[in-house]
Write a structure and sequence with these properties.
Blueprint lengths: L2 H20 L2 H10 L4 E2 H10 L6 H13 L3 E6 L2 E6 L2 H15 L4
Antiparallel strand pairs: 1-3, 2-3
């Protein structure tokens, strides 16, 4: 394998890791919510519940951990709470594009 192949493989591995981190309906819905602005866990839980996704706070925290470890969300302390926000706008675009694409008719 030459240097070019290694670089391509490394880039693909990064994309695979990103897509694996997003491979959950709860995580996708969480990214959509965070696209509206920073939220703490209980605010996310309330928003997800309002959109028809009931998820316990411990489970949501585990999903947020996956997103955080993948570098897709960052955290900020707000008093005694931790606020989550998207790491950058690309994350929201990827998720929204995937949702739109999945709703298109394909032949």
């Amino acid at each position: 394998m030459d240097v070019v192949d290694t670089e391509v493989t490394d880039r693909l591995a990064g994309a695979v890791d990103l897509l694996k981190a997003l491979a959950s309906a709860i995580r996708l819905a969480t990214v959509v919510e965070l696209g509206e602005g920073p939220r703490c866990v209980h605010e996310l839980q309330t928003s997800l519940e309002a959109s028809g996704r009931t998820v316990s706070q411990p489970l949501l925290s585990q999903h947020l951990k996956v997103l955080r470890e993948a570098g897709l969300v960052t955290t900020t302390r707000r008093g005694t709470e931790i606020t989550y926000q998207l790491a950058d706008a690309h994350v929201g675009h990827i998720v929204n594009d995937a949702i739109r694409h999945s709703q298109e008719e394909h032949q």
